[in-house]
Amino acid sequence: MTARYFIAAFMAYISTPSFADEVQVAVAANFVGPMQKIAALFEQSSGHKIRMSSGATGKFYAQIKNGAPFEVLLAADEQTPSRLEKKGLATEPFTYAIGKLVLWSAKASFIDDKGEVLKTDRFTRLALANPKLAPYGLAASETLKILGVYEKLTPKFVTGENIAQTYQFIGTGNAELGFIAMSQAFESGKLKNGSAWIVPPTFYSPIRQNAVLLSKGKNKPAAKALIQFLQSAPAKAIINASGYTI
Amino acid sequence: MPLTESDLQAIWLTLRLASIVTLILLFIGTPIAWWLARSKKWWKGPVAAVVALPLVLPPSVLGFYLLLAMGPEGPVGQLTQSLGLGLLPFTFWGLVIASVFYSLPFMVQPLQTAFEAIGNRPMEVAATLRASPLDAFFTVAVPLSMPGFMTASILTFAHTVGEFGVVLMIGGNIPGVSRVVSVQIYDYVESMDYLQAHRLSAVMLAFSFVVLLVMYLWRPSSKKGM
């Protein structure tokens, strides 16, 4: 119990008044970009307003458990929504996006289209998200194990607490290459800069990102409308164009 | 209190980091504080402001700029590369340098206050007795401002132990190299291992309290130089 209060004190959330036609959404940091586009479309077509908070899924879990006023959660994983459901804080989760892993470098033509660079000594730092905290980090470690280079490369690991920080490590050139989400490096299907290898999805277990309607949004039409909209064709088009599949 | 082996490693790393940073800052901070306490130059203001910056700046700003500066394109990164030292982020010495920036005001400000409290008189007396400025500094100023040195060192040490944002930004969370206690706790919280987070946090809390308690208990008897 004490541990819980301890966390509660840290994560105290300042609640803001919400209106009938407004929905409070917690969005995993990696999905903020596409969600902004989806939100714009949703607001246009439904007349409801979206109030969005972005952050780490683990943090949202602690906040929601301690009474944060979120009505919809778009998590970065499957576990957190199921955990909330088991605690009676959310309805049944559904997958809104499946993440794709890429090996990315800010340097042009540094990475070949088979990821063979991982077997060379051409780099000193390999960035990945913490496998314990981030699904993309876990997928990265699975990929390295399949390639048989995990043990050899461990001393070169630098781990970000999430993929945004991992991107920063690579983007600033402090790590020559690393694993991030495809949505971070690609825009409308094109690589923004540097070089990348899209890791075959068979190399890692699917990065399912699940969403749930939280108990605070159970009786709110705007929240329910958003949950439906997330599964509609226009939303799926945006999701697919942003480097995810669904 | 069952701490894991990696907890103990993080604690040891944190203590090593804080000790080295405190030692380095004693050497760097003392002349800066002395100059700030006695100089009448117009640029004393700007220097004091720069020294105080880490008090105001969010660690994310500091960490981000350090990451850029120490990166392959940054001025520090180019220097360290040309010296054959490689890049500093994700290394223990990178953390040391970042922490020196981060904890600078905690060394300089108490020392400056202590030096100012001495005033000019003792130094002038020492000079009339033919003590060189350096001699006078070590035989007169340093003993008179011993409480200031103690406060400054304790604050610097404790502040470095509590550092979080900067090490998260430039450390890379490498066990034994840059995974300090605060980062370890953060990992526990994020992975929802609240029990282990609680254990290690309790150690931190007790440590911080004891450090501050020692400082405040010992303070009233030595108002000189504070």
Automatic annotation (TrEMBL), chain B:
InterPro entries recorded: MetI-like, MetI-like_sf, ModB_ABC
Membrane disposition: Multi-pass membrane protein
Predominant localisation class: membrane
Gene Ontology MF term list: molybdate ion transmembrane transporter activity
GO cellular component: plasma membrane
Keywords in alphabetical order: Cell inner membrane, Cell membrane, Membrane, Molybdenum, Transmembrane, Transmembrane helix, Transport
Subcellular localization, as worded in the UniProt entry: Cell inner membrane; Cell membrane
Membrane-traversing stretches: 12-36, 48-70, 90-115, 136-158, 200-218
Domain ABC transmembrane type-1: 11-218
UniProt superkingdom: Bacteria
NCBIfam families: modB_ABC (TIGR02141)
Function: Part of the binding-protein-dependent transport system for molybdenum; probably responsible for the translocation of the substrate across the membrane.
Family according to the record: Belongs to the binding-protein-dependent transport system permease family. CysTW subfamily.
Matches recorded under PANTHER family: MOLYBDENUM TRANSPORT SYSTEM PERMEASE, MOLYBDENUM TRANSPORT SYSTEM PERMEASE PROTEIN MODB
Protein name (database record): Molybdenum transport system permease
Organism (species): Iodobacter ciconiae
Gene name tied to this protein: modB
